Amino acid sequence: MERGISVGMLARTVGVTESAIRQLESGTSKSASFSVGLKIADYLEIDPHVLAFGEGESLAATVRELRHRVEALEGGTPAERRRARP
Predict the structure, then answer these.
(1) Which of 58, 74, 77, 86 has CA 20 to 30 A from 31's CA?
(2) Does the pTM of the predicted model rise above 0.85?
(3) d(CA 79, CA 22)
(4) Mean pLDDT across the chain, nearest whole number?
(5) Which residue segments constitute the domains of the chain, with CATH numbers given?
């Protein structure tokens, strides 16, 4: 709902029924597929751990944090390194 994605749209995208998505949401699904969970996480751009357990950061936030760490180790962003060259 936060992203304006309907249950129907999500279901079609990951290849399951709306009923299956609603069962996953309510915790009443008897056979939640690992691959469906990964497809949902990918579509919503969240870490599968967040989807499964409701804790952690979004995948985009994790990637941003890793990018900042790499840039710090390499001495800044590529543009900053080019400007620093003599």
Answers:
(1) 58
(2) no
(3) 46
(4) 82
(5) 1-54 (1.10.260.40), 56-86 (no CATH)
